[in-house]
Amino acid sequence: MNKLLLIIPFLILASTYYVFRSDGLLMDSTTEDSYLEPDTNPGCANVTFTQWKKCMYEANIPKCDSLPENQRSGCYGASYLATQQMWPSVPTSTCACTQFWKYYERASANDPIDQNGYYHKCFSKVFLIRDAQSDNFYYNKIYAPQYLTCAGLKKY
Ligand SMILES: *[C@@H]1O[C@H](CO)[C@@H](O)[C@H](O)[C@H]1NC(C)=O
Q1: SS3 content of the chain, % helix, strand, coil (to 5)
Q2: Less crowded by CB within 10 Å, the N or C end of the chain?
């Protein structure tokens, strides 16, 4: 087979990748500055752990398992992708998320959730939001209410 035929798809892939990378918003998931919430007066600035948890409790957030069994896999998939970036003790977790959960461990109920901006840098991360959006149910019923609107952030 002509080698050129193999090289062309590779070049197309490589240039697509380059275009993605040169778009300021779509950077590597380890880059800390690609999040959507502004640093100046973020929506979550004055929200405390008490308010955040009360809101989540009242919102009665479902789980992927609340879906009929044959509709769960997309939700599990999005949840897995999101978890890889935001959960403590996951090596691929972003720096801001790791810092947030460390703070969470020792914070008091009336402390603000966005100490040092870790909260908004973690949960409004472009890659994390994009992965959460890969499943409608996961994003609209679980991720957005729990981590965005209950925390005072916009639902992007
Ligand atoms: C947080 O509180 C400060 C001081 O009271 C206020 O200026 C600011 O607008 C509040 N931020 C939000 C997002 O409500």
Answers
A1: 60, 5, 35
A2: N
Q: For residue range 91-106, list pLDDT tens digits in order.
A: 999 999 999 999 999 9
Query: What is d(CA 47, CA 31) in angstroms, rounded to the nearest whole number?
Result: 26
Helix, strand counts (H, E) of the chain: 7, 0
Check pocket membership of 46 for ligand 1, CB cut-off 6 A: yes
Q: Are 119 and 151 in contact (CB under 8 A)?
A: yes
What mean pLDDT comes out for the span 4-22? 40
Task: Tell me the two tokens of residue 31.
Answer: 């880059």
Domain boundaries, the chain: 28-151
Ligand 1 in reach of 41 Cβ (< 6 A) = yes
What does residue 2 show for φ and ψ, rounded to 5 degrees? -65, 125
Of ligand 1's atoms, which has the minimum distance to the CA of residue 46? 1
What is the CA(29)–ligand 1 centre distance, in A?
29
Find out whether the beta carbon of 45 lies less than 6 Å from any atom of ligand 1.
Answer: yes
pLDDT of residue 7: 44
pLDDT at residue number 89 = 87
* Portion of the chain with pLDDT greater than 70, in percent: 79
